[in-house]
Design brief:
Strand content: 15-25%
Low-confidence stretches: 36-40, 62-66, 179-184
Mean pLDDT: 85
Largest sheet: 6 strands, mixed
Number of strands: 6
CATH class: Alpha Beta
Order of helices and strands: EHEEHEHEHEH
Oligomer: single chain
């Protein structure tokens, strides 16, 4: 690849990764979104302004595919996350309507253990009342302590600006790292 910073989007199969990417870019249909969980079956790279990439990873959890296929997706995603020097930030998506699952917690802990910069985006925030959303965010912040949890809605644009701020900080941080001249 070309060494540009990468922002990875990861989460459950039906959490809205592709929809969030489209919403952030304010483009319909760039990342293929579907009502059927598990449509993203490979790692998809989207070059943004010739400056960085959005990376849409296969989801985990429920999808109408074989266990072997799900295991392959897991290996592909893990290999990418472990070995990608260009990875600037992992955006872990959770569904704000539900408590974080065991798989959500495992991924969050794994990212932390492996020293990956991360943020949590709580999608589908428009589906809850303000009181319900505040409660779910409080609970999520307790589970995902040590990182920001951003309420997001692709329908209303909620959280878009805040996510962009985190993405820009991740890119700047990675760019500074790459700009350090090698010692001879």
């Amino acid at each position: 690849m070309d060494g540009l910073p990468e922002i990875a989007f990861l989460g459950r199969s039906n959490v809205g990764k592709s929809s969030l990417i489209n919403s952030l870019l304010q483009r319909k249909g760039l990342a293929k979104a579907s009502n059927t969980p598990g449509r993203t079956q490979s790692i998809n790279f989207f070059l943004i302004n010739e400056t960085f990439y959005f990376v849409d990873l296969p989801g985990y959890g429920y999808a109408k595919v074989s266990k072997a296929t799900r295991a392959d997706w897991g290996r592909i995603a893990e290999d990418y996350l472990l070995n990608r020097r260009e990875l600037a930030l992992s955006v872990q998506l959770i569904d704000s309507r539900h408590a974080p699952t065991g798989l959500d917690r495992e991924l969050f802990d794994w990212l932390g253990f492996n020293g990956k910069d991360r943020i949590v985006a709580a999608t589908k925030a428009d589906k809850l009342s303000n009181n319900q959303l505040l409660k779910q965010l409080r609970d999520a912040k307790e589970v995902f302590s040590g990182t920001d949890v951003v309420a997001c809605s692709v329908q209303t644009g909620k959280g878009r600006e805040e996510l962009w701020q985190h993405i820009e900080m991740g890119i700047k941080k990675k760019s500074k790292f790459w700009l350090i001249p090698a010692k001879e």
